[in-house]
Design a protein that fits this description.
Helix content: 25-40%
Number of strands: 9
CATH architecture of the largest domain: Roll
CATH class of the largest domain: Alpha Beta
Distance between the termini: 33 Å
Strand content: 25-35%
Shape: globular
Radius of gyration: 18 Å
Structural class: alpha+beta
CATH superfamily of the largest domain: 2,3-Dihydroxybiphenyl 1,2-Dioxygenase, domain 1
Order of helices and strands: EHEEEHEHEEEEH
Number of helices: 4
Number of domains: 2
Length: about 150
């Protein structure tokens, strides 16, 4: 298989109320591509290479033969987003909670990473995390040293 470069990622999520979901994610700072938005779907821009398609449940069902999972009761996936600092992690997670999201887990604290998680209005799990660049550099040096030993 030949790759022509970076691939775009499209995550499709079923939502109970498209307008409320768009309002929720707008409060988190996301924008939407009007070219791919109608009464059944809205394209939430994560970055140039990633889009989350919010689809009303009936529209989402057109893409699968499987039963939809109730994300308030079962985990289907965890969408994880990076942040530029610990402060950005806290600000993003706090905004999600203020906008109507629910806490999912306790904050994650590791030597090299800090993160928080929340559920969106439909119960989908989201994480926001920051990785300590200096801890990663040490890891790269250790890995490089091990590779040459």
């Amino acid at each position: 298989m030949t790759s022509t470069g970076a691939r775009k990622l499209f995550v499709n999520l079923p939502v109970a109320n498209l307008d409320k979901s768009v309002e929720f994610f707008t409060k988190l700072g996301f924008t939407f591509d009007a070219r791919f938005t109608d009464e059944n779907a809205s394209a939430m821009i994560v970055n140039d290479e990633a889009v989350v398609m919010l689809l009303v449940q009936d529209r989402f069902k057109e893409f699968t033969k499987k039963q939809l999972v109730d994300a308030t009761k079962h985990t289907e996936a965890i969408m994880a987003l990076s942040a530029e600092s610990r402060e950005d992690v806290d600000a993003f997670a706090d905004t999600a909670l203020e906008a109507g999201g629910a806490p999912a887990n306790d904050p994650m604290e590791m030597d090299f990473m800090y993160g928080r998680s929340f559920q969106d209005l439909d119960g989908h799990l989201w994480e926001i995390f920051w990785m300590n660049p200096s801890a990663l550099e040490v890891g790269e040096e250790t890995a490089a040293g091990a590779a040459t030993s």
